[in-house]
Amino acid sequence: MKETRRGFEAEAVRRLLEDSSTPVGNRSGKKEGLSNKTGVEVQEDSLTRGLTSKTGAVPAVNAPTLEESNPVADDSLQKDRPGIRIASEESLPGASEPLTPETEVNAWFAQAEQEVDEAQHKEKDMTAPEQIRIPDEQEEMIHHLIVSVKAPQTVKAIQAVAHRLTQDSSILFLQNGMGMIDEVNKKLFPNEKYRPTYIVGVVSHGLYSNRPFSVVHAGEGTIALGVLPRVPIGESIKLEALNRLSPSARYLMRTMTRTAVFVAVGFPPTDILQQQLDKLAVNCIINPLTAILDCKNGALLYNFYFQRVVRLLLAEISVVIKSLPELSNVPNVNMRFDTLRLERMVFLIANTTAENHSSMVQDIRSGRLTEIDYINGYIVKRGEEMGIHCVMNYMLMHMVKGKNKNTYQENADLLPLAGQRS
After folding, report:
1. What's the distance, CA 375 to chain centroid?
2. Could you say which DSSP state residue 25 is in?
3. Pairing of strands 214-219, 197-203
4. 96/90 Cα distance (integer angstroms)
């Protein structure tokens, strides 16, 4: 009996290939195409005529299509229709029960719906950073983003527009300190595949703000720019990989370097990293010491006691920088980050900016959060990773935090008065 039914279905399949031009009519008499379910459109009348000629009766259900036919049917049909998967009876639900054309149709529909549901659930279970970030219809994608906020505000500032950033976007970081990009990757872009391209800049221009939305250009300087590769800098970086930058990164680099007032120059990743560390070493001395002393940068000059403190701090900083794995394959690292060279650079900058107040002094006076965690705190953090105990930088970091908290509490205790006391 089963072989007879298979023979009928094979005959029906052959006729389907001959008459597959019009939609099939369902049992309710309404014309309905099945191409969206099976990919094949058939005509019910031609199928029923073929079955009637064999059995003298018309089945009460729609005939199965080519995909729904039994695998023991003519193998040449599968060769003529590439890409069609025909499952065995054992793979269909309820294979132990007698199969009919109706149960086979329902089984195929159930299997197709299950595959769609699994794909949708898999996509929904992915976290937001793992999915391709597509902005809303009312918002545009951000191709170029320049971040110049204080280091502690970096994640919060980018988080507000993170959904408008894609792997084709570029972010330029113009900030003091180091370690902000690691936080951005951890909290906002953990998936490297959908991470924007990062460009870091080292600014030596003299700038300060005298009121909200106003910046004063106090001194001429330069901007060193470098595109960070998606692989760690310590690994081998091929020139071809750097040339395969996103169009937005190439455009932003070209625009910055061609704008004369910026005096911007592009550097390879290892060179820009060394320039970042040079500036970090200077900031680790001038910023926290002037913040604790509440003085100008020039107060650190020509003072034997301050000079001893500077040398102790730079000794720790020099050891940490020389031990960084990112610089393991870079030549002349020991000479560049020698304690004596760093000391000369610190006092040279302090002499050049003798009449200026560091940004950390201004932050403490205004009651704002300082960047100490991304300056001396970065040295302490990287030292702990390599087993180096930076006790001097650790003490200085907490002294700045303590002064910052104390100043904030003093300002909070002040009462606003309408007039002068009598």
Report:
1. 24
2. B
3. unpaired
4. 8
- Which residue do the tokens 């794909």 mark? 119
CA-wise closest residue to 168 among 186, 141, 148: 141
Contact call for residues 38 and 20 (beta carbons, < 8 A): no
Cβ neighbours of residue 259 under 8 Å, at least 6 residues apart? none
Q: 248 with 207: CB under 8 angstroms? A: no
Q: How many CA atoms lie within 13 A of 46 on its CB side?
A: 17
Residue 16 tokens, joined: 């389907």
Find where tokens 């970091």 sit.
397
Rg (CA), the chain: 36
Strand 214-219, strand 206-211: pairing: antiparallel
Q: Residue 78 in contact with residue 84, Cβ under 8 Å?
A: yes
Q: Is 127 exposed, middle or buried (0-12, 13-18, 19+ CB in 10 A)?
A: exposed
Answer yes or no: are the C-beta atoms of 202 and 224 closer than 8 Å: yes
User: Residues 400, 292: contact at Cβ < 8 Å?
Assistant: yes
Instruction: Give the amino acid at 190.
Output: P
* Alpha-carbon distance values, 266 to 207, 257, 269 (Å): 21, 7, 10
**Joined tokens for residue 382:** 């990287």
**pLDDT value of position 411:** 79
| 65 contacts: CB under 8 Å, gap ≥ 6 | 16, 34, 38, 40, 42
- Which of 40-44, 212-216, 358-362 is modeled with the greatest confidence? 358-362
| pLDDT, mean of residues 376-404 | 96
What spatial distance separates the first Cα and last Cα of the chain, rounded to whole Å?
114
pLDDT bracket for residue 7 (50, 70, 90):
low
Tokens of 387: 């087993």
Strands 206-211 and 144-147: unpaired
Give CA separation, 336 vs 236, 265, 332, 369, 390, in Å.
22, 21, 6, 32, 20
Written as one letter, the residue type at 3 is: E
Looking at residue 217, its pLDDT comes to: 86
Helices (H), 126-227: 154-159, 180-187
The whole-angstrom separation of Cα 384 and Cα 378 is 10
pTM, whole model, 2 decimals? Answer: 0.66
Spatial contact of 145 and 161, defined as CB atoms under 8 Å apart: yes
- Give the SS3 label for residue 298: helix
